[in-house]
Design brief:
Oligomer: homodimer
CATH superfamily of chain A: YaeB-like
Strand order of the largest sheet of chain A: 3-4-9-8-5-10
Organism (chains A, B): Chelatococcus albus
Keywords (chains A, B): S-adenosyl-L-methionine
Protein name (chains A, B): tRNA (N6-threonylcarbamoyladenosine(37)-N6)-methyltransferase TrmO
Family (chains A, B): Belongs to the tRNA methyltransferase O family.
CATH class of chain A: Mainly Beta
Structural class of chain A: mainly beta
Largest interface: A-B, 76 and 76 residues
Pfam families (chains A, B): TrmO_N (PF01980)
């Protein structure tokens, strides 16, 4: 199920995944970034101002109509290098474990990543964006407009993370 | 590929989907809401204060550890009633078409919905939340903590939408 060779760290817990899948995904494009090894990726998107390119497959390119008027987008992509069975895990650089659903780690039952990006330019089926931190060649799943009215929650708090930094 | 019986509206464009899927998803729980017909669902989550329940399957329940300290969560779910081949579409109540990736419509190549919810209570493998607008019984794909530092963009603009309301 996984090509993650790091094994399980102390305190981590794996579950048994179902034998079959319930639904299927189409890869609709690829993300091009400067990072070809996981160790080189920024720890989160705010750590890098690098411009990245999202290339949408020709079959889906017409779906980009009107996207140039979106200042920010949600990019959903597939973290295909991550193991999927960890329910409790300890990310790199962390001393303690947390439940998978309280983390943004790539290791999760459905490794769908979610990043908010700033849309810099549109050229046919290629978007130039700022705000990604994934490996070069990562498969693209979806693009959505960012609506501040429903998506922006500046007051949101993650207690375990706030305690860690405090 | 679809049980959407509404067909294609004037100006909408469908593409040819690939014959095979590239990756598979596990449904990790179900979402319980007051709405059993699409016509009854709120048009967006801000239109309803209804409390909804997210039930995580026992195999994944340990992944909820520490989630109670998250004020807001991202809920990713599967819109399994939507057709997947539309690249240009005209949502209900709209006069004009837009590219699929400039819309939050459920009809998209990978019908993964994304909603920010307020976490109200945690009881074992059941979360009470506010801010969903989906059908009762919708399959759950993922839960993620909302980090204001990377996810909140109050300044974001969607030009076609702003022009429509202006």
């Amino acid at each position: 199920m996984s090509d993650d060779t790091s094994g399980i760290r102390e305190g981590e817990v794996a579950t048994s995944l179902p034998a079959a899948f319930d639904a299927g995904l189409h890869f609709i494009g690829r993300i091009h970034t400067p990072w070809t090894r996981r160790a080189d990726c920024p720890r989160n998107a705010r750590e890098s101002d690098a411009l990245c390119t999202i290339e949408v497959s020709p079959a889906f390119a017409e779906g980009l109509a009107d996207i140039e008027g979106c200042s920010h987008l949600w990019v959903l992509y597939w973290m295909d290098k991550a193991r999927r069975d960890l329910v409790r895990q300890r990310p790199r650089h962390y001393d303690e474990t947390h439940g998978t659903f309280a983390l943004r780690s790539p290791a999760r039952p459905n490794p769908i990543a979610l990043s908010c990006v700033e849309l810099v330019a549109v050229d046919g089926n290629r978007l130039t964006v700022r705000g990604l931190d994934c490996l070069d060649g990562t498969p693209l799943l979806d693009l959505k407009p960012y609506f501040a009215s429903t998506d922006a929650r500046p007051e949101a708090v993650v207690a375990w993370h706030a305690a860690r930094r405090g």
